[in-house]
Write a structure and sequence with these properties.
556 residues; alpha/beta; 4 domains; eight-stranded mixed beta sheet; five-stranded mixed beta sheet; 36% helix; ATP-binding; nucleotide-binding
C-alpha cells in the first residue's frame, strides 16, 4: 500500500519553473572566466527533454541511473530528468578508482551512466562495463558517451508534471568507504524532501541566497544542504571550475551560505598564515577597530566576506580552528549528520553553539546516548535501508527505530552534542587499556604545524601518532636548521598534548609521515577522511623500528 501523496523535490522544481521561469538557478563556469547561466525555465526544459529520451529507451520501471561527474549544472539537471522519467539516481564520487566505479555500477544495478566533468576519465573508463550505455554532459571528456546536447535537441519536452510518490526510491547514496566497501543507502522522495525542507527552514535559506557547489555531490552533505535545499528554496547555485581557479570561483559566487570540511578550513587558514604571520595577525585582531577591519580583509581575500552562515562537517573540526574563524567575523558553525539520516541530525545555531560541539538536534530529530556512549538518532531523513544488505538493516537500528551511528558522544543539558570518537576506532594497547583516537587527533590537528594526524598503536606498549606536516613546512625540511626547529616544536606539542591525557592514552612518539595522505594514494576517502586501515597497513612494516628508536619524534 502506497503512502499518501506528499510534496516532493520535483514538485518544488515545477513550482519554481512556473513562478520564476526567468530567475537564474545555476551558473556554470566554462573556462577562461566565462560562465553560462541557466534559468529555471532552461533547466527544466533540458530536464524534460532528457526525461523524454530516458523514457524512450524502454528501461525497466524504477531503474537506477548513475552519474559520474565533478559538480556541474548538468548534475542537477540530469537528476531532475531521471526523477521525471520514473527512475532513481546513483551519484559516484568523481575521484573513484575503476574498481570502485565498477562495484557501485554493478552493485546498484545501474542501467545507464551520465559522464560529466572529470580529471582522469581515461583511467576511470575501465571501470565502466562495456555494455553500459553512456551519455556525456556538455563538459565531459571526449568520447565519454552520446552527446547530451544532441539527445535533448532531438526530443520534445516531456509535458505536464510527472509525479513521484513519497515512498518511491529517489536515490542511492553510497558511503565513502572509510572502513571498507561502500554501502548503498536508499532514500525515498518523502524523506529527502522533508529533510531538505527542515534544513532550508532552519538555516533560513531563500531565493536571494547564493551557494558555491564544489564538495562531491555523491556525499550526502553536499547533496542535502546544497542541491536539495536549493530545489526547495530556489536559491542561486554557482559551481567551481578547478582547484586553480577556486578563489576566483568563490569571489564570483559571493556565497551567502558556504560549506566546507575541516581539512579545507585548515588549508584556508594556512594560506592566510603564509601571507600574515600568526602572531602578527593575532595581535592585530586584538586591537578593537583594527581587528574588525583586519578580519574583513582576510575574509575578503578568501572570498567569504558575504557569508552569513558557514558550516563545517564530515569530520571533527578542531575547536581552536572554529574559534579562529569566528574571531575573523565568520559565522562558522559545526554540524553533524550521515548518509543514513540524509545529514539531518544536528546543527549549531546562534543560540546553541560552542567550539567542540556539533550543535543541537534539528526539529523532529530524537537523540539518546546508550550505555556504550553511542549516539542513537531517529530522524525524519531516515533511510529506507541498505541496498541488498537486509542483514545490515537489522543490525543498524534499535527495536524502537533509533539508528546506531557508531559515533560516541556526550550531551549537555541544553542538547549540545560533543562527539568523542568512533566505536570501531577505539583500540587496545598491550597494557590492556582502550584508547579513543579522535579526541587526541583533535588536539594534534589544532597545531599550526600539522595538516593531518592519525593516532594508532594496536597491541603496542603505548599509542603513537602519525602526523602529516603542512605543505609549506614539507618544502623546507631540506634545511637542517629548519628540520631541527620543527622537531623542537613537535616535542613541545607532544608534551602539551600528553599533559591533557590520562596516563594510558599518552603518546609514546610522533612519527612524521614521509608523504602526504591523499585521495590518489588511497589514504583519504573522496570526502578527505583518513582511511585508517590503509595507513596502518602502510605503517606496519616500519612500526617495530619506530618503537625501537626510543625517540619522541621519529622521521618516517
Amino acid at each position: 500500500m502506497k503512502a499518501t501523496r506528499t510534496k516532493t523535490l520535483l514538485d518544488y522544481a515545477y513550482a519554481h519553473e512556473q513562478a520564476t521561469p526567468g530567475k537564474v538557478y545555476l551558473t556554470q563556469p566554462i573556462g577562461g572566466g566565462q560562465v553560462i547561466d541557466y534559468t529555471w525555465a532552461q533547466c527544466m526544459e533540458q530536464a524534460r527533454r532528457m526525461a523524454a529520451h530516458l523514457r524512450s529507451l524502454g528501461l525497466p520501471p524504477a531503474s537506477h541511473i548513475a552519474i559520474l561527474s565533478k559538480n556541474c549544472a548538468h548534475c542537477f539537471i540530469a537528476e531532475l530528468a531521471i526523477w521525471m522519467a520514473g527512475c532513481a539516481t546513483v551519484e559516484i564520487f568523481p575521484t573513484e578508482e575503476p574498481d570502485t566505479i565498477r562495484f557501485v555500477l554493478e552493485h546498484s544495478d545501474s542501467k545507464l551512466l551520465f559522464v560529466g566533468k572529470l580529471d582522469n576519465w581515461s583511467h576511470q573508463a575501465g571501470g565502466v562495463p562495456a555494455t553500459m550505455p553512456r551519455i556525456a554532459f556538455p563538459l565531459a571528456p571526449a568520447n565519454a558517451g552520446e552527446s547530451w546536447d544532441a539527445l535533448v535537441a532531438a526530443q520534445s519536452p516531456l509535458p505536464g508534471k510527472p509525479a513521484r510518490d513519497g515512498d518511491e526510491l529517489a536515490m542511492l547514496v553510497y558511503t565513502s568507504g572509510s572502513t571498507g566497501q561502500p554501502k548503498g543507502v536508499m532514500h525515498c522522495f518523502a524523506n529527502v524532501t522533508r529533510a531538505a525542507e527542515i534544513m532550508a527552514e532552519t538555516i533560513d535559506c531563500g531565493p536571494d541566497d547564493r551557494y558555491l557547489s564544489y564538495l562531491p555531490l555523491a556525499h550526502v552533505v553536499e547533496r542535502s544542504y546544497i542541491e536539495c535545499c536549493s530545489m526547495v528554496a530556489g536559491c542561486h547555485v554557482y559551481f567551481a571550475e578547478s582547484l586553480e581557479t577556486f578563489v576566483d570561483d568563490i569571489k564570483r559566487a559571493r556565497p551567502t551560505l558556504f560549506l566546507s570540511v575541516p581539512r579545507l578550513w585548515l588549508k584556508f587558514q594556512l594560506g592566510v598564515f603564509e601571507k600574515i604571520p600568526p602572531k602578527l595577525l593575532d595581535f592585530l585582531l586584538g586591537i578593537p577597530l583594527v581587528g574588525k577591519l583586519m578580519g574583513h580583509k582576510v575574509l575578503s581575500g578568501l572570498g567569504l566576506n558575504h557569508v552569513r552562515l558557514a558550516g563545517s562537517g564530515s569530520a571533527p573540526t578542531p575547536p581552536e580552528l572554529i574559534a579562529w574563524y569566528r574571531r575573523l567575523g565568520l559565522n562558522l558553525m559545526e554540524g553533524y549528520g550521515m548518509s543514513e539520516d540524509f545529514a539531518l541530525s544536528h546543527i549549531s545555531t546562534a543560540e546553541h553553539n560552542a567550539p567542540g560541539y556539533v550543535g543541537i538536534p534539528f526539529d523532529g530529530v530524537e537523540v539518546r546516548i546508550n550505555d556504550d556512549h553511542e549516539v542513537l538518532i531517529k530522524s525524519p531523513g531516515r533511510m529506507v535501508g541498505y541496498y541488498k544488505r537486509p542483514e545490515l538493516d537489522a543490525e543498524s537500528f534499535t527495536a524502537d527505530g533509533f539508528f546506531r551511528t557508531g559515533d560516541q558522544g556526550e550531551r549537555r543539558p541544553d542538547g549540545l552534542l560533543k562527539l568523542t570518537g568512533r566505536l570501531k576506532e577505539v583500540f587496545k594497547t598491550a597494557k590492556g587499556k582502550y584508547v579513543a583516537p579522535a579526541p587526541i587527533e583533535n588536539l594534534i590537528n589544532a597545531h599550526p604545524l600539522v595538516e593531518q594526524s592519525m593516532v594508532t598503536g594496536v597491541g603496542q606498549p603505548a599509542a603513537y601518532a602519525l602526523v602529516v606536516l603542512t605543505e609549506h613546512l614539507r618544502g623546507q625540511l631540506g634545511d637542517p636548521a629548519e628540520r631541527m626547529r620543527v622537531e623542537q616544536e613537535l616535542l613541545t606539542m607532544l608534551k602539551d598534548v600528553n599533559a591533557q591525557l590520562p596516563s594510558y592514552e599518552r603518546l609514546q612518539m610522533l612519527v612524521v609521515a614521509h608523504d602526504p595522505w591523499s585521495i590518489e594514494n588511497g589514504c583519504l576517502t573522496p570526502t578527505m577522511k583518513i582511511k585508517r586501515r590503509q595507513i596502518e597497513a602502510q605503517a606496519s612494516e616500519r612500526m617495530a623500528a619506530w618503537y625501537g628508536e626510543q625517540r619522541a619524534v621519529v622521521w618516517g
